[in-house]
Write a structure and sequence with these properties.
The chain has 192 residues and is of the alpha/beta class. The protein has 6 helices and 7 strands; from the N terminus they run H-H-E-H-E-H-E-E-H-E-H-E-E. The mean pLDDT is 90.
């Protein structure tokens, strides 16, 4: 199924999520067998996008997350999109990831960092650094002002966007910034 066909089957902003995701993937040029992690499953839109692009995706969020965006029926959406066999869910906390060192080629946080308590964002970045392969990349998608203004109409308490560069553990990452349709995209490549 194409991205356009999936967008027709799924409710919500899937087409815009996919457009912003495509910008990041074009920059990364990942191998087809890349090991990828999607942090913050929600309704599964970003994991579905990655799976539709041919990746086997590990996705997850904390089992204790009871916020508005967590605990959605991502599996039903993945079934509708025809990619359920390419996505595996595992509950985890991004500040204490249960994954081995150097496991992932790419880690994606689509609209997630600004929902993580500011006091643990540094720990999240250290875990990203630990679990990324040398030469791997982490991509943070943070909402643009226009996106936030739309979100605030239905979710007035939605937090402001975060700047991931404020939480870099050291200079081991090279940064690239892109502007998407709904998100600012921050790509950090791990030296290697």
């Amino acid at each position: 199924m194409t991205i356009e066909e999936i967008a027709q089957k799924l409710d919500g902003p899937f087409a815009m999520i996919a457009a912003d995701g495509a910008l990041a993937l074009a920059e990364l040029d990942l191998a087809a067998d890349a090991s990828v992690l999607d942090v913050g499953t929600g309704a599964g839109s970003f994991a579905i996008f990655l799976a539709a692009r041919g990746f086997d995706v590990l996705t997850g969020e904390p089992a204790t997350d009871t916020t508005h965006y967590a605990g959605k029926d991502w599996a039903a959406n993945a079934e509708k999109a025809g990619v359920a066999d390419r996505i595996r869910f595992e509950a985890f906390d991004a500040s204490r990831m249960p994954f081995e060192t150097g496991r992932f080629d790419a880690i994606f946080f689509f609209g997630v960092l600004h929902h993580i308590d500011e006091s643990v964002r540094g720990a999240v970045f250290r875990e990203v650094q630990r679990t990324l392969k040398d030469g791997g990349a982490v991509v943070f998608f943070e909402p643009r002002r226009e996106t936030l203004e739309k979100l605030w109409t239905t979710d007035p308490g939605h937090p402001e966007a975060a700047d991931p560069s404020a939480y870099l553990p050291d200079a081991a990452f090279a940064e690239t910034r892109l502007q998407g349709a709904m998100m600012d995209i921050f790509i950090y490549r791990k030296a290697g």
